[in-house]
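Lecture notes, part 5. Sequence design as translation. It can be helpful to think of inverse folding as translation between two languages: the language of shapes and the language of residues. The source text, in structure tokens, appears below.
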């Protein structure tokens, strides 16, 4: 794997981590500030957070595997 490809994977990890963090903050805000009134939003926000974290995990695993491969 080239350095350029590795940097692209690293950039994807950073992007997905940021998105996962934003989703987690949205979930936190919902829980802290708007429940129980906004309980109808809970499943969608939780699902979005789960998917964002899963996307980060997959990107991170690809990056780690590629890093180990080039070492």
């Amino acid at each position: 794997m080239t350095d350029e490809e590795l940097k692209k994977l690293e950039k994807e990890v950073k992007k997905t981590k940021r998105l996962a963090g934003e989703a987690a903050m949205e979930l936190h805000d919902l829980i802290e500030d708007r429940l129980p009134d906004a309980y109808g939003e809970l499943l969608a926000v939780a699902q979005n957070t789960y998917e964002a974290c899963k996307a980060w995990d997959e990107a991170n695993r690809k990056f780690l595997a590629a890093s180990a491969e080039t070492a």
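The translated text above is only one of many valid answers, since several sequences can fold into similar shapes. Residues 18 and 56 are 9 Å apart (CA to CA).
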